[in-house]
Amino acid sequence: MQATAVNGDMILGKKPFFHLGLVVGAICAGLSMSSGAALSVELTWAELKPSVFGRRLITRNDSVVKLEVPYRAKDDRQVPVSVQASLPNGAKVKSVTIIIDENPMPVSLTVRPEQQRSSLWVSASMRFNGPSPVRAIVEAENGQLFMSEAMVKTSGLGACAAPPTTTLDVAAKTLGDMRLTQIVAPLNVSTIAKPVMRTKLDISHPNLTGLQLDQITLLYILPRYVEKLAIDQGDEKLMSIEAGISLAENPSIAFDYVSNGAKKMHVEAQDTDETVFRHSLQINPGS
Predict the structure, then answer these.
(1) Which of 140, 210, 284, 287 could lock onto 144 through a cystine, CB 3.0 to 4.6 A?
(2) Is the torsion defined by CA of 234, 235, 241, 242 positive or negative?
(3) What sign does the dihedral 61-63-66-67 (CA atoms) show?
(4) DSSP conformational letter for 160
(5) Whole-number Å distance between alpha carbons of 284 and 287
(6) CB 33 within 8 A of CB 114
(7) How many CB atoms lie within 10 A of CB 61?
(8) pTM
(9) Distance from C-alpha of 88 to C-alpha of 59, rounded to nearest angstrom
(10) How far is 210 from 189, CA to CA, in rounded Å?
(11) What φ, ψ does residue 218 adopt, rounded to 5°?
């Protein structure tokens, strides 16, 4: 079932959704790294890198890219992953990509800022299907690629196949609802005239992976997850985001931005059923 929502008004239609990558992922969903992990990690990344970045050089630099993840996840379904990009010599950030090597869809989140900035902070709640390296790769506008990586240990129970925490009927009642929360006071950055703010966007959506079983019918639930976001600050484009099944149920994405004094952010989200949710959210500094 296809549905398009504009400011809460739903227009229903019919369109089947099928994702071959998820079928392939389902075959591998139960797999996790063995104790001989080092070789496995190297092979996984060696296979992943060409499919995402081709033969481009990626420089490991933990000063340019600061990645924060827990050493051991408290909950494999909601693992915080934060990235601080700080490019040298005035280079501008073109994109920030988070890759979870051992997830069925490893390329988990890509953020593309519209503001011309040398620094950018993003954070998101992610699913980890098992113990895995996680990588943050920052692309500069001049084409340079910088990376930081870390290992996250998990229970190994397969969060991508974990059943939703609520029934789909209950989730449908708040589907696409959003909330914007200012999470810290304005940051003082001496190199720019306008303040840098941090805010968190919460989206009500089950983010179904296609690997989850209905606990009553024991049939796989069809995938349906948020795959695109466009965020504007007033009339100014702020950023676009691409996501996959690694983004947690009821996803939370936080980011910083240069304030232009606008009172509202306009958010448009689209999921894989081509349902579109549009909201104008009040910016409340200090809330």
Answers:
(1) 140
(2) positive
(3) positive
(4) G
(5) 6
(6) no
(7) 17
(8) 0.84
(9) 13
(10) 43
(11) 60, 25
**Token pair for 173:** 């009642």
CATH 3.10.100.10 at 2-29+56-282, yes or no? no
Supply the Cα-derived Rg of the chain in whole angstroms. Answer: 19
* Ranges of each domain in the chain: 2-29+56-282
Give the Cα-Cα-Cα angle 257, 276, 184 (nearest 5 degrees): 25
Task: Between 108 and 184, name the one with better pLDDT.
Answer: 108
Distance, in Å, from the CA atom of 153 to the CA atom of 247, rounded to the nearest integer, reads: 18
pLDDT confidence of residue 267: 98
The token pair that represents 22 in the structure block: 């998820």
Comparing 25-39, 68-82, 121-135, 208-222, which segment has the lowest mean pLDDT? 25-39
Q: Is the pLDDT of residue 188 over 90?
A: no
Place of tokens 């950055």: 189
**Bigger pLDDT: 39 vs 1:** 39
Looking at the DSSP bridge assignments, the partners of residue 282 are: 264
Q: Which two tokens stand for residue 68?
A: 């924060």
CA atoms of 259 and 257, how far apart (whole Å)? 6
pLDDT of residue 172: 96
Mean pLDDT of 224-242: 98
Decide if 227 contacts 244 (C-beta within 8 A): yes
